[in-house]
Amino acid sequence: MKKIRNLVLMGTVAILFSSCFAMSRRAPLTGFLYTSTKSPGFVTSNAGATKVGTAEAMSILGLVATGDASIDAAAKAAGISKIHHVDEECTAILGIIAKYKIHVYGE
Fold it and tell me: For the chain, what is the domain count?
């Protein structure tokens, strides 16, 4: 009985932390309890960026994930046709809530 309880506990912990690890695998650094990082996606030019578009996706308990954090969605949100650079942002707390944002800069 104790062995089953330990397996259930380990499985529950793995599920709870799965969203944190999934969202943070692209982050430059990851934290076991909390992650909040920003990192560059790619750069084509640093000059002339007059608009900023943001798109976001989030996960709750690693069981439900929703959103469109694509470069295309962020560019369309700001009416950007020429992309200059892209930044990524990842936040995760104990695997309970995880957010992934992408920021597109351009004109």
Answer: 1
